[in-house]
Write a structure and sequence with these properties.
Distance between the termini: 25 Å
Strand content: 15-25%
Strand order of the largest sheet: 3-4-2-1-5-6-7
Radius of gyration: 19 Å
Structural class: alpha/beta
Length: 299
């Protein structure tokens, strides 16, 4: 009941000894994540005591992978060092790099995404909350106590809306929730997650959260139309955004009628996706569809 991240995942944290890295490593461990090490060249050979677990610090990702078998890294390093951190992870053969850092220059993101692709490393982010498979593992900053395991898959540009929909649908529960980030250039896309949820036998319904700007949601709508057989419910942030304004994430740029919430809603609905006008209405649409699927299965 998961995509990309399971209880078997072994996680390194690049930047674990910094303030944010320490705080969220402690939360990840509390959620059951198998954090096997941190990476900081200046503190190699040391260890950090997180109450019930002592986590070693390695001088490099390659060293940490060799010692622990890590296959996931979570990146908490400052923006200036993020490109090098992702390239280091890719060179070490890490399969999944979750880049939490915000404020990374777009040209750096373009460079490390392209490089990671040549090495077979999936990148989630940057400027994202990460991903969580409730009850199994949590890689990033998503609160682990707002959802239980279940059969809804969630993919979202917005961290805050990820949390809200997780909370509103907590009684059903989730297979995996993926916050892909809202920068103009991200690694893993809506379509990547839709494809993975379609193939996951334990995901029965998918929630897609987008926002104004760009055409990612229109492209996702086309993919749903052509490739997804499972029910999809969506919400687009920005229905009330003033015309001509740039708001929110760096990727939320609207040009004329292109990239508006209404245009995205129309594209999704044309593909058979129900679209809520608010997060709460979206949750109600999910609950209604979920209940109807349960009734149909019993008949």
């Amino acid at each position: 009941m998961a995509i990309f991240l399971t209880k078997e995942s072994k996680v390194l944290v690049q930047g674990m000894t910094g303030g944010e890295g320490m705080k969220h490593t402690r939360r990840m461990l509390a959620a059951g994540t198998d954090v096997v090490g941190g990476v900081n060249p200046r503190k190699a050979g040391q260890a950090v005591d997180f109450d019930d677990r002592v986590v070693p610090v390695f001088g490099s990702v390659r060293e940490g992978k060799a010692a622990t078998g890590a296959d996931v890294t979570v990146v908490f390093v400052p923006p200036a060092f993020a490109k090098a951190a992702v390239i280091e992870a890719a060179d070490a053969g890490i399969g999944l790099a979750v880049v939490i850092t915000e404020g990374i220059p777009v040209h750096d993101s373009v460079a490390f995404h392209a490089y990671a692709a040549t090495k077979g490393t999936r990148v989630i982010g940057p400027n994202c909350p990460g991903l969580i498979t409730p009850g199994q593992s949590n890689a990033g900053i998503i609160p682990a106590d707002i959802a239980k395991p279940g059969r809804i898959g969630l993919v979202s540009k917005s961290g805050t809306l990820t949390y809200q929909l997780m909370y509103e649908l907590r009684d059903i529960g989730f297979s995996t929730c993926v916050g892909i980030g809202g920068d103009p250039v991200v690694g893993t896309t809506h379509i990547d997650c839709l494809a993975a949820f379609q193939e996951d036998p334990d995901t029965e319904l998918v929630v897609l959260i987008g926002e104004i700007g760009g055409d990612a949601e229109e492209r996702a709508a086309a993919y749903v139309r052509d490739h997804v057989t499972k029910p999809v419910v969506a919400y687009i942030a920005g229905f009330t955004a003033p015309e001509g304004r740039t708001m929110g994430h760096a990727g939320a740029i609207v040009s004329g009628s292109s990239g508006t919430a209404q245009a995205k809603k129309m594209a999704l609905e044309a593909a058979g996706v129900r679209v809520g006008g608010t997060p709460t209405e979206t949750a109600r649409l999910v609950l209604t569809r979920w209940e109807s699927e349960r009734v149909a299965a019993q008949e």
